[in-house]
Design goal:
two-stranded antiparallel ribbon; mainly beta; 41% strand
């Protein structure tokens, strides 16, 4: 999926020292606070561990895409911090972590929007630690 995201860096990270930057790029990889992750796809079943739920933090009256990006960023940070290789967002704001990629080939579901899964559907990402 090709998405336009704003990427910000302003401190030392694993890739070196960065000056304060803010720019937009078209990416298929998502750079969250010095963790690179790639969207794998939408699945109706993904054996994983619930890490946290951010559904109470969603402002349902605000711009929806930016709300979902915020959830994905938080989930990516938490999964990387806990050293999971994969994470998924289900039910708009439930964050899951796993060590294994989804089994059974490519994405099998279509019930995901804005990079997150709807209820009982998981949009899965790989974290490159």
């Amino acid at each position: 999926m090709l998405r336009k995201l704003e990427i910000r860096a302003g401190s030392d990270g694993p890739l070196g020292s960065y000056a304060d930057l803010a720019y937009q790029v078209e990416v298929t990889f998502v750079f969250f606070f010095f963790y690179l992750s790639a969207g794998i796809g939408c699945y109706d079943n993904y054996p994983s561990v619930l890490l946290d739920s951010y559904t109470d933090e969603i402002d349902w009256f605000a711009q929806f895409a930016s709300q979902m990006e915020k959830i994905i960023k938080k989930c990516a940070q938490l999964a990387a911090k806990k050293r999971y290789r994969y994470f998924a967002v289900e039910g708009y704001g439930n964050c899951y972590g796993a060590q294994n990629s989804p089994s059974g080939g490519g994405p099998k579901a279509t019930r995901c929007n804005f990079g997150v899964g709807l209820d009982n559907y998981y949009y899965v990402y790989e974290v490159f630690l």
